[in-house]
Amino acid sequence: MSSFLRPAVSGEDPLITPSTNGHADHSSKIGVGRISGQYRRISSHLAIAPPVSVVIPAMNEAENLPYVFKTLPDWIHEVVLVDGNSTDDTVQVARDLWPGVTVVKQRGKGKGDALISGFAACTGEIIVMVDADGSADGNEIISYVSALVSGADFAKGSRFANGGGTDDMTPIRKLGNWALCAVVNAKFGARYTDLCYGYNAFWRHCLDKIDLDCTGFEVETLMNIRVVKAGLRVQEIPSHEYVRIHGVSNLSAVRDGLRVLRVILHERGKRHARRRTPAFATSANQGEVS
């Protein structure tokens, strides 16, 4: 059995350390550090060794964070909140909700810049990207992590895979997403069902292969393209997107759609050494850390 994955036995403590004599040493879950060889129980059937970091880029999302944090599983290793110079109580609310949260003060602007800063601050082996507007269900993280420990390099959320859905996309945004997705599939040999979605997870070492260098909402598209170009194993995860709970989105269908298109054309013109044939499963700007 993989050193990352083992069955969880009913009645076990959340954090279990296998010993050399074949018996399990039980230890407390308190604390964010990971001792080598420990397994973290994430369900009644599954326990994992890799620590999981959740990155949440946020700007003036104080009202939405309670809904976001409420669905985050308690077995995750750390939460990294990237604050885009909020003028409300975003940072304090995050600290109240998750006392061990790592707060990164964003120096640049844009979602891509925020995510790059957040990724740099992560200490976990698995990184999960979650939006701060309440549209994502943290309970789905177990599906992403399960795909990764089962062999995927990149677990990509999809609102249009069988079992997924969205309450938030307008018809014009759906059409644009479909068209851009079709272009990426045709130009890069991908088999995506969704392109512009920000709920994804991946092994930390993948960052060395995709080398992110954009600042805006097009960051998800850039990641999806470079994952394919690097030959990483992708598994789509059906995900349901809910309507933003409070506030107004900064997304502009036309402006950001054009930025996505420019990324696609730019990446198409670049050469990238492939490490192996991409596999699809069916189913750095750093901020100040406080």
Q: Write out the strand line-up for the largest beta sheet, numbering strands in chain order.
A: 15-13-10-12-9-6-7-8-16
Mean pLDDT across all residues, rounded? 84
Label the overall shape: globular
Distance between the termini: 38 Å
Tally of separate helices? 8
**Could you tell me the radius of gyration in angstroms?**
19 Å
Tally the beta strands.
Answer: 16
Give start-end ranges of low-pLDDT stretches. Answer: 17-36, 273-277, 282-286
Structural class computed from helices and strand pairing? alpha/beta
> What portion of residues is helical?
25-40%
Q: What is the string of SSEs from the N terminus onward?
A: EEEEEEHEHEHEHEEHEHHEEHEE
Query: In this structure, how is the largest beta sheet organized?
Result: 9 strands, mixed
Percent in strands: 15-25%
Short note summarizing the structure:
The chain has 290 residues and is of the alpha/beta class. The protein has helices at 65-70, 90-97, 111-121, 141-149, 171-188, 207-210, 219-229, 253-268; strands at residues 5-6, 15-18, 24-27, 39-41, 47-48, 52-58, 78-83, 102-105, 126-129, 154-158, 165-166, 200-203, 233-238, 240-241, 279-281, 288-289. Strand 6 (52-58), helix 1 (65-70) and strand 7 (78-83) form a beta-alpha-beta unit.
What does this protein look like?
- By secondary structure, the protein is an alpha/beta fold.
- It contains 8 helices and 16 strands.
- It has a 9-stranded mixed sheet, sandwiched between helices.
- Strand 7 (78-83), helix 2 and strand 8 form a beta-alpha-beta unit.
- It is globular, with a radius of gyration of 19 Å.
